[in-house]
Specification:
alpha+beta, Rieske Iron-sulfur Protein, 3-stranded antiparallel beta sheet, disordered N terminus
Length: 214
């Protein structure tokens, strides 16, 4: 039976048998450096049991996740193509708070090319409003942001913080749709990878969509 193993999101857990990957080194190194940003990290389960074999993963095999097991307000992390992919089950309150950020975002409608598939070009940046699926790598220099999902002030964040993601390397911030705030080093929103739902809507396959058949 599949199990979810809880690890801190700054653990940098990777498979030692995988070939070297610069993007992996960046996000693991960034994750290991977050100790100086006290109080902003959130424990995030890592779904290792859904990972394909080493050889298949290195080739970019799809990763399947049972999203029905993610409680509202919680997030899990899986590895796809050597990158951390976040799956966040947003609450109704978190979805409502997204509207408060629009004026402060650099690209609120995800108009910039390359990071958002057509089915995610909406205010939720997702196929279904409640579930965000995005690559947990900052679009600035490849660090891994910290999930800071709760609203309110925290080190490096404004008092008006509504919840989102904070990159400890250079201070870029993203809302709970992965949209970058204006006047930050990161030039783009967090990447939304190709993904699709199972027919019954309980599982997500990362790496497969209309244009990427796996």
């Amino acid at each position: 039976m599949s199990q979810i193993t809880t690890l801190p999101d700054d653990s940098g857990a990777v498979d030692p048998n995988l070939p070297p990957d610069p993007s992996r080194r960046n996000w693991v190194a960034a994750a290991c450096a977050v100790g100086g940003v006290a109080g902003v990290a959130t424990a995030v389960p890592f779904v290792g049991s859904f990972a394909p074999s080493d050889k298949a993963r290195a080739a970019g095999a799809p990763v399947e996740v049972d999203v029905s097991a993610i409680p509202p307000g919680q997030m899990v992390t899986v590895e796809w193509r050597g990158k951390p992919v976040w799956l966040l089950h947003r609450t109704e309150g978190q979805l409502a708070d997204l509207k408060k950020n629009t004026a402060d975002l650099a690209d609120p409608n995800s108009d910039r090319p390359g990071y958002t598939p057509e089915y995610a070009k909406n205010e939720y940046r997702s196929r279904k409003p409640e579930l965000l699926v995005c690559v947990g790598i900052c679009t600035h220099l490849g660090c891994s942001p910290n999930p800071v999902l709760s609203p309110g002030p925290a080190p490096g964040l404004p008092a008006s913080w509504e919840g989102g993601f904070f990159c400890p390397c250079h201070g870029s911030t993203f809302d709970l749709a992965g949209r970058v705030f204006a006047n930050k080093p990161a030039p783009d929103n967090l990447e939304v990878p190709p993904y699709s739902y199972s027919p019954d809507g309980t599982r997500v396959v990362v790496g497969i969509d209309e244009n990427n058949k796996g």
